[in-house]
Amino acid sequence: MDTTIVVPAYKEAGNLKPLVERVFQSVKDKKTTEIIIVDDNSQDGSFEIIEQLKKKYNVRIIVRTKERGLSSAVMRGFEEARGDLLLCMDADLQHPPEKVPELIEQLRETEFVIGTRYLGQNTVDKDWPLYRRVISNGARLMAYPLTPLSDPMTGFFGIQKHVLKRGKNVSPIGFKICMELFVKCNVKKHAEVPIFFGVRTVGESKLSSKVIINYLHHLMELYWYKYPLLIVLVLLVGILTLFFSLQLLLQ
């Protein structure tokens, strides 16, 4: 097996059939490509849909009944993968399946690859809500010191299996597993493929205030992991500033 595409899913039954069909229509070698759907016990017909698709395509589904969460679903899929090239993409068809071959080819030559919304022009659907654009751009700015990726928030990315294995203390919590792996696996070389990011047509968005709070917490952990001395210095300066300010007030 050459390539494994992992698709975390929750209540995405309406998108799974077109996703699988479009991916296999796009890839050159269907026999050496597999798709693993990691479903968080949706109970919406997803299992039955994949069981039917298995008769024609190299696809399987893992239904998790005790675990929840996108990042841990991706990691579970990577653990079960038979391919040496590991890709991840969303189930909602906002990541164009037709771009999968391009990511695969780039990944053969580098350690890490992303599908990015921020290369070129008109790469995001005009109907994508303004508040989502603002949140996305703000999140990118906060992540810049951690990674050179133009779209660290993307869920459309790939990593070579041997690079994944060198990851230390990888946390399967939250939604931004791409950034987590890039930092924790100490990626040296990466490539970026421009994509057109569409709007969801079936199902509901998973974005919520809880997701945003978890992202901020995730950022803090990654900063602490990558720049521990800087964080200590900032805290020390803050404590000293507070101390001398109190001293002045008490005089």
Write the layout of secondary structure elements.
Layout: E1 3-9, H1 13-26, E2 33-39, H2 46-53, E3 59-63, H3 70-80, E4 85-88, H4 100-107, E5 112-116, H5 130-143, E6 157-160, H6 161-164, H7 177-184, E7 190-194, H8 209-226, H9 228-250
Parallel strand pairs: 1-2, 1-4, 2-3, 5-7
Antiparallel strand pairs: 4-6, 5-6
Helix pairs in contact: 1-2, 8-9
What does this molecule look like?
The chain has helices at 13-26, 46-53, 70-80, 100-107, 130-143, 161-164, 177-184, 209-226, 228-250; strands spanning 3-9, 33-39, 59-63, 85-88, 112-116, 157-160, 190-194. The longest helix has 23 residues, at 228-250. It is an alpha/beta fold and 251 residues long. The model has no long low-confidence stretch (mean pLDDT 85). It has a seven-stranded mixed beta sheet.
Helix run count: 9
The largest sheet has its strands arranged as: 3-2-1-4-6-5-7
How many β strands by DSSP? 7
* DSSP strand content: 5-15%
Given as residue ranges, the uncertain stretches (5+ residues, pLDDT < 50) are none
Question: How does the helix and strand content classify structurally?
Answer: alpha/beta
Instruction: Give the overall shape.
Output: globular
Q: Give the C-alpha Rg.
A: 20 Å
What string gives the helices and strands in order?
EHEHEHEHEHEHHEHH
Please give the alpha-carbon distance between the first and last residues: 73 Å
What is the helical fraction, as a range of percent? 40-55%
Mean pLDDT: 85
Oligomeric composition of the shown chains: single chain
Largest β sheet strand count, sense and barrel closure: 7 strands, mixed
